[in-house]
Amino acid sequence: MSWIESIQKAINFMEEHLLEDITIEQIAQEVNSSVFHFQRTFAILTDMSIADYLRRRRLTLAAQELMDTDQKIIDLAYKYGYETPEAFTKAFRKQHYLTPSEARKKQGPLQSYNRLVIQVSLKGAEPMKYKIVEKDKFQIVGVKRTYNCQNGENIREIPLFWQEVNQSGLDHQLYQLNNGSIDGVLGVCVPNIKQGQKGFIDYWIATDHVGDVDEGLLAMEVPASKWVVFEVHGPMPDAMQNTWKQIYSEWFPSNPYEPAGTAELEVYPEEDPYSPDSYSEIWIPIK
Asked: Which InterPro entries does this entry report, sorted A to Z (predicted)?
């Protein structure tokens, strides 16, 4: 089963169990995937977390019931997974910009999020430049934070993490420490297996460094792997996001590899990331 087929199967599973308290572990198990890789792939292809998708779909269906039935608002709140009518009203207003009572009175338009259908796009008009490399284990040094991917915390918080690093000047320190074979500052996404529960990642802003670790920085060994390295051309963040989507919607379905599920890298050389001529890379371990 390809990753595209797996995502669609997972969407179908979520739709069949929308009114149940399903977990990301159950969804990933349905498609024989690790939690880490499933949630990464889903977010890349859909621009939302699994929790976001479930919440948007439930509130879409709740709005339809408000319009089409006389069911009490408190009963709809419980039906769609909210412990109190107040929590339901807050979430409903955030999505629809109306309260449930206003929606029932048809006092404004509603925001409908339809069931997702994932499609493979094999255009061929935009060739992808990549190479396969074998690399021994290496050390990265930098800073890291742990994020919950189930509720979309990683999507919201990682850009803020980069902003802090850039404003503090730590990015320049990392460029100076860069003496390994991968040239640049790295954004490294690693499954976190120490939380006692699944669905967390460690995200590093770091660099490939040989030698001692500066005070205030952490170190991690990236294992020896076979990597597929993709070229990314164009200004950030769009060029990087578009390449990730192309990798999972076009490259993996067309090639005999699959992600190994270990650390994935974004590589940013020391240049203006917003320039139209900006160059960066994506490194994905494969098997």
From this structure: AraC_E-bd, Cass2, Homeodomain-like_sf, HTH_AraC, MarA-like, PH_domain, Reg_factor_effector_dom_sf
What whole-number distance in Å separates Cα of residue 179 and Cα of residue 208? 7
Kindly report, residue by residue over 203-262, the tens digit of the pLDDT.
999 999 999 999 999 999 999 999 999 999 999 989 999 999 889 888 888 888 989 989
Residue 275: its pLDDT value, please? 92
Residue 216 CB burial class (10 angstroms; 0-12, 13-18, ≥19): exposed
DSSP-assigned beta bridge partners for residue 139: 221
* Beta strand pairing call for 185-191 and 200-208: antiparallel
| pTM of the predicted model as reported, rounded to 2 decimal places | 0.83
Say whether both 226 and 184 belong to one domain: yes
Which residues make beta-bridge pairs with 219?
141
Q: What is the CATH number of the domain that holds 201?
A: 3.20.80.10
Q: Assess whether 230 and 92 both reside in one domain.
A: no
Looking up tokens 């207003």 gives 93
Burial of 228 (0-12, 13-18, 19+ CB in 10 A): buried
Number of structural domains found in the chain: 2
Model confidence over 10-67: pLDDT tens digits? 999 999 999 999 988 899 999 888 888 888 888 888 888 899 999 999 999 999 999 9
Contact residues for 109 (Cβ-Cβ < 8 A; gap 6+): none
